[in-house]
User: What shape does this take?
Amino acid sequence: MRYSARAIPHIPFAMKLIHITDPHLVTPGTRLYGLDPQLRLRQCIDDVVAHHGDAALCVITGDLADRGEPAAYRALAAELERLSMPVHPLLGNHDSRAAFLAAFPNAARDAHGFVQAVVRRAEGDFVFLDTLEEGVHGGRLCDARLGWLRARLDDAGTRPVYLFMHHPPFAVGIPSLDRIALLEPAPLAAILEGRRNLRHLFYGHVHRPVCGSWRGIPVSTMRGLNHQVSFDLTGVDDVPHSHEPPAYAVVLIDDDHVVVHFHDYLDRRTLVQRGDEYVYAA
Assistant: This one.
């Protein structure tokens, strides 16, 4: 079946945002789970540069490095220099706050030194949270971080708010991940309760495409840039890894809706018809 290009009119969006998560960089030249995280990141940035230079923001939701190595953060900083839009890297449980800040000395921080910030745009307030609790894999929002968030949400008033964090504050149904999600999420839920201007919550950590809602807030994440987490709804103790393809998200935002596209950026092949068969175009 052929579709007319005029059948569905183009709907312009007010804003495009790039969401990347879990690059897990290591010292350049070494591999992780048999793969090269630096190459995977470079290929991702190549794709963003080639096709989404019009994006207004790029947010990376944590686990920037796998072991918090200074060389990994320096490599990340060099790759991100190639992007034309502002980039906001967040911290995850594999990160080192000190090593990150050494490589990103201009990263926004709150008064307590946590890597938290708000970007205010015409489309709304984009709020970036620091859930890193060094020494454990689960995430945490301490009283200081929660107080900062409450103040920022109060400042937003009725403006649309988009939240970004590494650890999901809810279970995703994969037991090995749910035990290392955000620890003690109830105080966060209390702060968010009743705020009808929360448009979307973007997170990382789970290395899987997961969408849904939490307490009425739409949520989404996707596969990471290097290794993935296998779809195992029963295992508890060990996090199972896989070589499923990496992805990043292209987020389109308008006044009345948010659309999140997951893009497996290593495969841009398209099918063409040759006789009665369909094959990938050269």
